Amino acid sequence: MSEFALLTLLIGALGLVALGIGGLVLSRNLFRVVLALALAEAGANLLLVLVGFRQSAWGAIAPIIESGRDAASLTPSMVDPIPQALVLTAIVIGVGVQALALSLAIRAYGAYGTLDMNALRARMETDIDSAAGTQPARCQHAPAGGRPLPPISAGARRADTPGTPA
Amino acid sequence: MSHSLLALVVALPLLAAFLPPLLPGAIRRLLGPLALLLVAALGVYLWRITLIEPVSLALGDFRPPLGVVFYVDSVAALFVLAVALVTLLLWPWRGDTSENLDRKQSLTLVLAAACGGLAVSGDLFNVYVFYELAAVAGYGLAAGGGTAAARVATFRYLILGSLGSLLALLGITLIYFRAGTLNLAHLADLAPQTLHDPFGLAAFFLILLGLGVKAELFLVNTWAPEIYATAEARVSALLAGLVSKLALLVLARLLVLVFPLPEARGALLILGMLGMLTGEFAAFRARDIKRMLAWSSIGQLGAAFIAFSIPGSLGLAAGLAIALHHLLVKPALFLLAERWGGGLARLAGAARRSPFGAALFALFALSLIGVPPLPGFWAKYLLLSGLAAQPDNLYLLAGLVVLVTTVVEAVYLFRVIGMLHGRDAAHSEKPQNMALDMTLPASTLAGSGAFAALLLAVALAAPWLTAPLARMALQMNDSAAYVARVLPATATSEATK
Amino acid sequence: MLTRYGTLLFAAGFAFLLFVLFTSQPLGAPPMLAGQALLDEAATTVGAANIVTAVVLAYRGIDTLGELSILFAAATAVGLVLGSAHRTLGAGAPREPGGFILRAGVDFLFPLLLLVGFYIIVHGHLTPGGGFQGGVVLAAAFVLPVLARPTETLSHKAMARVEGLAGGVFILTGLGALAFDRAFLAPLLGPGQLGALLSAGTLPVLYLAVGLKVGAELASLLLRLSEDEADA
Fold first, then answer.
1. Chain A: residue whose CA lies nearest to C78
2. Domain region containing B186
3. Is residue B163 within 8 Å of A41, Cβ to Cβ?
């Protein structure tokens, strides 16, 4: 693979990570948040595979010893098998987490009738306060440090309508 | 190969989590506690032998840089014991349906296995896998509270946690890219040439932020008050008591072994100070017990981060003392808060209904503040004396922060104690007060009573515990011994050639 | 608006930082300290022609156990969130059986998918593929009939049994090594002849367990989500 192709792959993987993180922070719709997470994870996995790539005289050789070939002559130019195994693990982890996130989103939608993150958060705060028997305090839902999903003040109102898959 | 039993720390709880669908009802209820008891026994055994010398196990008999290694020093062994004991004390004996009880017990076992794995693992990616395992089990348990608010809180926790895992994975990718190995001992051996530069620091900061999510590090701890307010008390106790400590332990190990750099320590120190300040002041302003405890736990973990940022075994000793003390106190407080979870005003007069419960609360609160005979005092004393011994002014500032936040802590905890013993007449006109039963159930009292007994035992035995603690810190700080044990000289030279 | 641009700027900056880090040393020439040593010895010590399989099941078998547990935990948690398996069907939208083409196609595909799935699993140590990939195909084989005939759903209990059995087999095979004075998850029975179907010791057994567990877990995850959709 040429230098240019490798660079393209790298930029593609980093682009996926950046898009995913941007989407994770900016999306208000729960389903889109999960999609953004999947994008970012795909980018990270791509990076991990890319790190194990080894340029050899015949291009890249997959770490599989074909029958009839001499193992000792192949192994010095095979790509690194460890990142490939790690990526397999990371992908499966991602699948599990995303399935769980979707099931939580389904239940949240069932209870509150919206998939909008800000609306859901407001309802959750109200529920917590009424369960505790306290007045909602203005100071409490502005925790110090960054919020995981900061609100967008304008422009994204349409996310309020639950038009996305439930 | 006599240490091949080490693998049981992970294997036994997982086996007990997988097998129940195949077994009849009577046995399956006993399987989990039995597995945890065995792990606890193993923890005691390991602690006794590792106080003399650490042990390691190459899983699958593959020589270390290739396969995954488990490494147990006395610190890891003590955490294995603590994981098993705390999980047993917080074991879910009852559930709404038999199916859901099965699920909760399985998830609790998986969480215990993951925490044990985090304590003993000596491989960077393996740590990531166990961290994710603990995370997913934690999400399941947190959502298991059943309310809609718990689901929303868990979703937000899951997204933040996954973002953290993503950052950690990127950090691990960077380290593998540069060093070509994942074994912590091998990395420790290579780090001075390959990772002690801005590249390595960037990787460390990514991992710090990533694993910091579970350790309630400043900036990535916004999930804590939401989860602890909505999840069941025993789940909050598990997450705040165990999972956060194990994430902290992994970060401390990484700091000692691979990144013993002033920049890395400085980051830990500053984030720890910010966490302590924001946590304790937010706890001061909180109006219900659960969120107050959540913020105070963020503050306490900030103190532990400050302690681990002190170079040398003195800092490690202080950090371990703070972490272990918090591990005993916070779960018990969350158990007490199960019934007393409402707003502070509702607590008026609760001490009359449950005098024993109120006494326990006062005991834990006093230890948390650091009143002399109790273990919390020794933890803070170690921290402050460690900070005072450092020449850098930033460490002195951290000492000031610890003192100031102690005052804040005392104010809000004494406010609750006062409320508990106060007269309920002033508030009884509110009709909802009448309906609430503030009497604590016997199971809660037994659970937190057990923690209190442990705490008092530690307080009584304090003079005899300083030597083992110092020994543990020394062992943890000795990265040369770690490398020598995991990678015998032949393997090192061959792998690095 | 400001947060939006700020976030985009931050994400782009983060990507640029990573770009600088990843181009700080040449791509395509990794150090491979552990990787090269592993490539050199894997064929003789483990005996799997597919070296990635040797890493997944032998060298880093504990990671695979952890990842199976993560899938298990996720499936259990989804069960906890979405509720009991015994819900009455038809409470929500009526579930009509699929058309003739769908039903006939599924009947035709089901045995084929089973065959392909098991083929991929048992050849995991020789060719690309293995328990995870084959398990996904198996899950598809069992989910398709439910799409065609929604009234006949699979028993969650049976799938939980398969899951438990497969997980148990994986751990017990690993613990079996202790009986031979080897470490946990050490492959037994010797490497065998490289490239033969019956080679690489206990690795094919482990991959079969992985395949069954992944198949059962994914199928139960998908079915639970689809059952819930019908009820909503």
1. A100
2. 2-496
3. no
Q: Which domain holds residue C50?
A: 2-231
Q: Which residues in chain A touch residue C195, judged by CB atoms under 8 angstroms apart?
A: 65, 67
What's the CATH code of the domain at A19? 1.10.287.3510
- Number of structural domains (chain B) is 1
DSSP A29: B
If one counts every other C-beta atom within 10 angstroms of the C-beta of residue B480, the result is: 10
Residues of chain B with Cβ-Cβ distance to C59 below 8 Å are 60, 62, 66-68
Shortest CA distance from C127: residue in chain A = A64
Nearest CA in chain A to B141: A100
Nearest Cβ partner for C33 among B68, B110, B496: B496
Tokens of B32: 């989990």
Domain assignment of residue A139, yes or no: no
Q: Which residues of B touch A22 (CB under 8 A)?
A: none
232 residues of chain C, pLDDT tens digit each: 678 888 888 888 999 999 888 888 888 788 888 888 888 888 888 878 888 888 888 899 899 999 999 999 999 999 888 875 444 444 445 567 778 888 898 989 999 999 999 999 988 888 888 889 999 999 999 888 888 887 777 777 888 888 889 998 999 888 888 888 788 888 877 777 777 777 777 888 889 999 999 999 998 888 888 777 655 5
Task: Count the Cβ atoms, other than its own, within 10 Å of residue B284.
Answer: 18
Contact B268, B208 (CB under 8 A): yes
Query: How many A-C residue pairs are in contact by the CB < 8 A criterion?
Result: 173
What's the number of domains chain C is made of? 1
Q: Name the DSSP class of A75.
A: G
Q: Would you say residue A12 lies in a domain?
A: yes
The answer to whether B274 contacts A144, with C-beta atoms less than 8 Å apart, is: yes
Domain that holds residue A100: 1-57+79-127
Chain position carrying tokens 């794995």: B117
pLDDT, tens digit, 9 for 90 and up, residues B314-341: 899 999 999 999 999 999 999 888 877 7
In a domain, A31, yes or no: yes
Instruction: Give one word for C200, left, alpha or beta, with left for phi > 0 and alpha for psi -120 to 50.
Output: left
CA distance B340 to chain C (A): 26
- SS3 assignment for chain B: CHHHHHHHHHHHHHHHHHCHHHCCHHHHHHHHHHHHHHHHHHHHHHHHHHCCCCEEEEHHHCCCCCCCEEEECHHHHHHHHHHHHHHHHCCCCCCCCHHHHHHHHHHHHHHHHHHHHHHHECEHHHHHHHHHHHHHHHHHHHHCCCCHHHHHHHHHHHHHHHHHHHHHHHHHHHHHHHHCCCEHHHHHHHHHHHCCCHHHHHHHHHHHHHHHCCCCCCCCCCHHHHHHHHCCHHHHHHHHHHHHHHHHHHHHHHHHHCCCCHHHHHHHHHHHHHHHHHHHHHHHHCCEHHHHHHHHHHHHHHHHHHHHCCCCHHHHHHHHHHHHHHHHHHHHHHHHHCCCCCEHHHHCCHHHHCHHHHHHHHHHHHHHHCCCCCHHHHHHHHHHHHHHCCCCHHHHHHHHHHHHHHHHHHHHHHHHHHHHHCCCHHHCCCHHHHHCCCCCCHHHHHHHHHHHHHHHHHHHHHHHHHHHHHHHHHHHHCHHHHHHHHCCHHHHHHHHC
Amino acid identity for residue C124 in this structure: G
Question: Based on the structure, what is the number of domains in chain A?
Answer: 1
A160 domain residue, yes or no: no
Interface of C with A in 154-213 (CB under 8 A): 194-195
Q: Which chains touch C (3 or more CB pairs under 8 A)?
A: A, B
The token duo for A31 is 């389903």
Q: Answer whether A104 sits within 8 Å of B230, measured CB to CB.
A: no
Computed on alpha carbons and rounded to an integer, the radius of gyration of chain B in Å comes to: 22
